[in-house]
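Hi R.,

Quick one: here's the Nitroreductase sequence you asked about.
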Amino acid sequence: MNEELIPIHEVANTVSEAIETRHSIREYEQTPIPEEVLQRIFAKALRSPSWKNSQPWKVHILSGEKRKELAESLTNAAKTSNPIPETNWPESYPSDAKKRMFDLGMKIYGVAGIDRKDKEARDQFMLRNFSFFGAPTAVFITSKFDLNFFVGIDLGCFLQSVLLLAREEGLGTFPQAALGAFPDVVRNALNLPKEEKVIMGLSIGYPKANSELNRYHTPREGADDLIRFY
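And here's the predicted structure, written out as tokens:
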């Protein structure tokens, strides 16, 4: 596995480049995203595949004061209560996955200048999830479908489309399960019906160009370890 520092504040010119250079962005410029750019990304992402063309997603895009108000509400909820997600977050992993997850945490804290033993600093860093890591726009993905494995695949296909299309526009993203941690807060802010489940969200904006944290490119296992030809 190779670890690299990759600039990500320029546009991706091909699908391959978008896939190879995309990673989660944790520091953003405050430049607003033009509405026509957001319209273009999400309209194209609606072409994502889904089971029998069921299209189980709904998308909510927040900028400006609405984004600020929800960031404050979510941060307050995270400080005062435990997560109550409407989807089952994974609780167990194979040993090799646990190692990758631990290594990622150590690397991210290291690049962010946080000592692993500094719980207060780690908690503050975690809370940045709920202010969208400073991104000017926040996105929530919801669904009225009964959640199952295939609905999850469909939502994943849609999310990947958004991530790559954003990269094509020179934008950075951070998909966040944490944004589904307090669904009632989101539902109240967006006036959603009770049957509309808050699945997850993502932060999106222009990556801060001089950020070492943004340049850290998470490693992947090699093709020889995970892919077999017959």
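The first strand starts at residue 4 and ends at 5.

Cheers,
M.
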